[in-house]
Amino acid sequence: MLATSIITPVFVQFTSIFGWAIPLLLLIAFLKTRFVKGVFGEFQVNWAARRFLDKNVYHLFKNVTLPTTNGTTQIDHVIVSKYGIFVIETKNMKGWIFGDPNQKTWTQTIYRHTSKFHNPLRQNHTHMQILQSALGLDPSKIFSLVVFVGDSTFKTSMPDNVVSGRGYIRFIKNKKQVVLSDSEIRSICERIQSARLKPSLKTHIRHVRYVKSIVDGKKWKNNQTCPKCGKAMVLRTTRNGDTPGKTFMGCSGFPRCRTIKPMA
Questions:
Q1: Is the model's pTM score more than 0.70?
Q2: 30: exposed, middle or buried (C-beta count within 10 Å: 0-12, 13-18, 19+)?
Q3: What residues have CB less than 8 Å from 181, skipping those under 6 apart?
Q4: Residues 166, 140: contact at Cβ < 8 Å?
Q5: Which pLDDT score is estimated for 197?
């Protein structure tokens, strides 16, 4: 009882003084989420497009979600013009970026921390194929463009269609050969509007869930394959030692391969 009478006033006083810090910390944590960083990155690309591209020549579509055979795909930006169709993948990242067009994954380094992420050129190639198929477009008139925003620096040579900041504006304006007529542009814009799913929070959430299911499926598949030799991992049980009866995943190539994985 005495402890309660002492702790309660202290707690009330603490929250009255530092209560403002709790929502502030929550706000900071929210602003650092991948979702917010993605939204902010796309906002920068949108702003630059509206600021530096003539809207009568370049027609901007944001967050184009298209249905696919198994689910959906979401394209950050599509810009339709008489000079071609630009399919844009946006990456809001910081640190040093290492990558090669032919690599499956690229590398992000922040101080001593290194992490891998999917090659955005490959991601965008898939987007282009789906858009091309959905709209019946000529592939020679579609251009892939990857835009990095944020405090990031390329530490390896990048192709012309991988740029940082407003470099994508220069890339687009460098395309000066007319490849689409006014009637073709109108038709393509109408087809994008009719083919895309209605832009909404519900559409976005459904797409995020679909992407998560793919990621989870890949994790499960990786857990079933030996990282050393590629053979199947099988469930085994410890018979001797300090933990008899404990289950773990062991390589089916045993005894040649002795790779094991603990059960999650």
A1: no
A2: exposed
A3: 82
A4: no
A5: 78
Sorted by where each begins, the domain ranges of the chain are 1-32, 34-220, 225-262
Rounded distance, CA 100 to CA 197, Å?
Answer: 33
Report which of 147, 158, 167, 16 is spatially closest to residue 76, judged by C-alpha positions. Answer: 147
- The one-character DSSP state at 175 is -
Neighbour-count burial of 214, counting CB atoms closer than 10 A to its CB (0-12 exposed, 13-18 middle, 19+ buried): exposed
188, 85 contact by CB (below 8 A): yes
Angle among Cα 40, 93, 217 to the nearest 5 degrees reads: 95
The single-letter DSSP state of residue 197 is: P
The ranges of the chain with pLDDT < 70 are 1-42, 199-223, 241-245, 263-264
Beta strand spans in 119-207 (E): 142-149, 152-154, 162-164
- Contact between residue 135 and residue 188 where contact means Cβ atoms under 8 Å apart: yes
Strands (E) located in the chain = 59-67, 72-81, 84-92, 95-98, 105-110, 113-118, 142-149, 152-154, 162-164, 233-237, 247-251, 260-262
Q: Do residues 81 and 74 make contact, with C-beta atoms less than 8 angstroms apart?
A: no
